[in-house]
Inverse folding.
């Protein structure tokens, strides 16, 4: 198998490389120091298996594994960590195995053989049957043959249109297939529903403005667009607009 090794500690990566090369059955295609790099390398190199630490800077292994599930040919994931309290979360993102450091050669070989027995088709079916865990720090956007990661703090709003949802940042727009209901549930502490088809980041609401027609619209930071507020959600948006961090738009 072609293996990607992911760990923020160089010595830990070297140890895994040594163990894998000693087996003589697998090859290492690359190394990565965090979850972001793991996703980039996986998209480019398409490894069969990812050996990945959990606690890493920028993006941890659990979230990276979740994003890897969206690939057309997702790699098997084996977690390598010094902490045992993440085992349940690891298997919720369909990890093949969970190895505690210091990693023994026989234990690693067993995990790699297990990953080898799982076909790509089986892994894709398993991933599709699982709901995405909550608490993401990024939204993954498929763009042809690559994945773009959008940090949640950069998102100004989510707007649903038919089967797609538009993500708006200060500079770009992207389409994803997540439902607005699931996004609202996952990020309810950061986003406010203003319409049946729209969620807006609370921190990006500059104010609320009444139009000559009598309808209300939110005024946003960083973009010139204004979004309609439904009658049902007007009271909650007006209460927010009166809060100290927002101003009335005229």
């Amino acid at each position: 198998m072609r293996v990607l090794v992911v760990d923020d500690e160089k010595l830990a990566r070297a140890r895994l490389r040594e163990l894998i090369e000693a087996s003589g059955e697998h090859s290492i295609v690359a190394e990565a120091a965090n979850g972001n790099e793991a996703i980039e390398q996986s998209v480019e190199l398409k490894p069969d298996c990812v050996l990945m630490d959990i606690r890493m800077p920028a993006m941890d292994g659990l979230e990276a594994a979740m994003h890897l599930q969206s690939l057309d040919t997702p790699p098997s994931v084996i977690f390598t960590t010094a902490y045992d309290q993440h085992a349940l979360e690891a298997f919720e993102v369909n990890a093949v195995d969970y190895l505690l450091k210091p990693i023994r050669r026989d234990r690693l070989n067993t995990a790699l053989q297990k990953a080898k027995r799982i076909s790509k088709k089986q892994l894709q079916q398993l991933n599709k049957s699982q709901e995405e865990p909550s608490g993401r720090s990024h939204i993954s956007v498929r763009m042809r043959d690559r994945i773009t990661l959008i940090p949640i703090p950069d998102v100004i709003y989510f707007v649903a249109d038919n089967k797609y949802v538009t993500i708006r940042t200060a500079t770009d727009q992207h389409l994803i297939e997540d439902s607005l209901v699931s996004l609202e549930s996952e990020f309810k502490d950061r986003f406010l529903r203003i319409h049946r088809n729209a969620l807006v980041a609370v921190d990006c609401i500059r104010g609320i403005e009444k139009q000559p027609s009598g309808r209300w619209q939110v005024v946003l930071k960083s973009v010139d667009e204004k979004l309609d507020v439904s009658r049902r959600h007007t009271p909650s948006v007006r209460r927010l607009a009166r809060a100290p961090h927002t101003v009335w738009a005229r």
About this structure: The first strand starts at residue 2 and ends at 6. DSSP finds eight helices and 15 strands in the chain. Residues 244-250 have pLDDT under 50 and may be disordered.
